[in-house]
Write a structure and sequence with these properties.
single chain; alpha/beta; 16-stranded parallel beta sheet; 10-stranded parallel β-barrel; 38 strands; transmembrane helix; Oxidoreductase
Length: 568
């Protein structure tokens, strides 16, 4: 049989691999000593364990004809693979499975169509998989990588990075940058960032626009550098339990445009470096600004997934940003640790069926503004002192909260008083039949609103509050009426008013006289028949004025309560 061998000489390891490819048999070059077989020490392996990357690429791209009745495949363990493994733009019809191998160069499957690729427990350099199609599993379990770029890739099986260690690439490839640059139209700074030419070396995983049909399993991942997954879609879910993501340097914010709202805050500083903001930086609403200096552990705007688990020991040092994400299941931060010097969580404009927000520790502002959540399961300690809730809507709340704790929660917006969070909370209490709690929330809303008014408005508001609790405590008016009625009855029983018309026969009753003074319109015709004397005149005038104030407060409060609510 013709070997169809394009190489003049193959070393013994390559010859074994060449012969085994036709049937997909394993070629195991390991010595049996776990320490000596650690791929981290692969640079020291001798020629008996060395395979050129071009031999591997040639086999996968069809240099060896398959044996009839057998399924070809490349399965190699414990090898040192030298050079760059370049499969870009190729069509790979056989599966690749590398176990405990050391690859010193770049693995490039950009724009390629491949079968399943497995790199288990390997020591890898940079991996490029942009726009590739992997028909099956893309597996890096237990491996170490220096950057994984798979933007707009399509994986029909699973993406696995469990227990993997990923760091950013050392720097952008100058040759790649030279070939991508158009001298007639040089890239702007924003375009260079979007293409990864400016800050691509700051991201451990770049997976913008990637589609993974079978789910992404990143449990136990250790990433030094951010995960950039803007617009990615994980049909089988995204799982990062026990993963640890640390943003080492400032990852520049792509030019996605400003967020709605005022721009009133100052620039933020991070733990590792500082940057001066400019007028062109995008602003977050409610007084917070996310600038190009913000460090992102996870940057995943518009991500779509059937579930997303940032839970069970997940740790992020840097902002976790899921702005505009769509989660058709559970998004969980249960027992997570979130830490950032400015904003730890950015979950605005998001849609999620259920959000579990019960981190073990959280440091840095949280933003849930303008998101739509089906069920929100949280607890009071899940939030920092600064929480943006304006525009947030939810169908149900779960968790061991008291009404006082919920009121503290909706009042933590760094931009100050916002009516919508109070209205949304009151609407939920009404839906579950807790009308007294809803009234308590709306009363707290009016009291917070009072602080934003002018002095006259604050005075009238305080008067409404004391008199009838802004209409949400009408029993206060009755209490005031009883106190005033009792005081007037006691005083006018001791110091009886004089009769205005001596010829008119009337019998004085202190209780009825006081009641007639309190009622804005005389009912018993007592106030016109008797005239208070001495200092009791001031009491009578006070009773008349109090009656008008209580009546006005009751009418204003009733109008406020009966007014249609604009809450969702």
């Amino acid at each position: 049989m013709r070997l169809n061998r394009p190489f003049r000489r193959l070393n013994p390891a390559e010859r074994r691999l060449w012969d085994a490819y036709q049937t997909g048999a394993w070629v195991d070059l390991r010595s049996g000593d776990p320490e000596a077989d650690d791929p981290a020490n692969g640079e020291c392996w001798g020629p008996e364990r060395t395979v050129r990357a071009e031999v591997v690429a040639a086999l996968l791209l069809g240099a060896r004809e398959p044996e009839p009745g057998a399924t070809p495949g490349l399965r190699l363990a414990g090898a040192r693979i030298t050079g760059n493994l370049d499969l870009s733009d190729g069509a790979v019809g056989a599966k690749l499975h590398l176990l405990n191998c050391h690859l010193s160069g770049t693995v490039d499957i950009s724009d390629a169509k491949t079968q399943g690729l497995r790199f288990r427990g390997c020591e890898l350099g940079r991996v490029r998989a942009a726009r590739s199609t992997v028909d099956g599993l893309l597996d890096f379990d237990g491996s170490s990588l220096r950057g994984l770029r798979m933007d707009n890739a399509h994986i029909t099986g699973q993406l696995r990075l469990a227990r993997a260690r990923v760091s950013p690439p050392d720097a952008a490839d100058p040759d790649l940058m030279r070939f991508m640059e158009d001298v007639r139209r040089p890239y702007s700074e924003a375009e260079r960032r979007e293409r990864g030419l400016e800050d691509g070396h700051r991201w451990a995983v770049w997976a913008g626009g990637a589609v993974v049909d079978g789910g992404a399993f990143l449990r136990g991942l250790r990433a030094t550098g951010g995960l950039r997954m803007v617009g990615a879609r994980f049909n089988g879910g995204l799982y990062l339990q026990e993963a640890s993501i640390t943003a080492t340097r400032h990852s520049a914010l792509p030019a996605t445009g400003p967020e709605p709202g005022p721009s009133t805050a100052t620039a933020t500083a991070t733990a590792t470096a500082t940057a001066e903001p400019t007028a062109a930086e995008p602003y977050g609403y409610s007084g917070f600004r996310e600038s190009p200096a913000t460090s992102y552990a996870v940057y995943a705007d518009f991500l779509e997934s059937s579930a997303a688990e940032f839970s069970a020991g997940f740790t992020a040092v840097g902002t976790v940003r899921l702005r505009g994400a769509r989660i058709n299941g559970v998004l969980s931060f249960d027992r997570a640790t979130l830490e950032a010097p400015d904003r730890s969580l950015h979950l605005s404009h998001m849609q999620v069926d259920e959000l579990i927000l019960k981190p073990s520790a959280i440091e840095g502002e949280a933003n849930l503004g303008y998101s739509r959540i089906g069920v929100l399961l949280d607890h009071p300690a899940a939030y920092p002192d600064r929480v943006q809730l304006n525009g947030l809507t939810y169908e149900a709340l779960r968790g061991p909260w008291t009404v006082a704790e919920r009121l503290s929660w909706v009042g933590r917006d760094p931009g100050g008083y916002r009516p919508q969070p109070y209205e949304q909370l009151a609407a939920w209490y009404r839906r579950i039949g807790h009308e007294p709690d809803a009234r308590r929330v709306l009363l707290a809303k009016q009291r917070e609103h009072r602080g934003t008014l002018r002095p006259t408005g604050r005075f009238w508001g305080r008067l409404l509050d004391v008199a009838v609790g802004y209409g949400y405590r009408p029993w206060l008016a009755g209490l005031w009426a009883v106190v005033l009625l009792a005081a007037g009855t006691a005083v006018f029983s001791s110091v009886q008013p004089v009769k205005i018309d001596p010829d008119h026969v009337r019998h004085f009753n202190a209780f009825v006289y006081t009641l007639d003074l309190l009622v804005p319109v005389s009912v018993f015709e007592q106030r016109g028949a008797w005239e208070p004397v001495g200092w009791t005149r001031w009491l009578a005038w006070t009773l008349v004025a109090s009656g008008w104030i209580l009546a006005t407060a009751l009418i204003a409060g009733a109008a406020r309560v009966l007014r249609p609510s604009n809450s969702p």
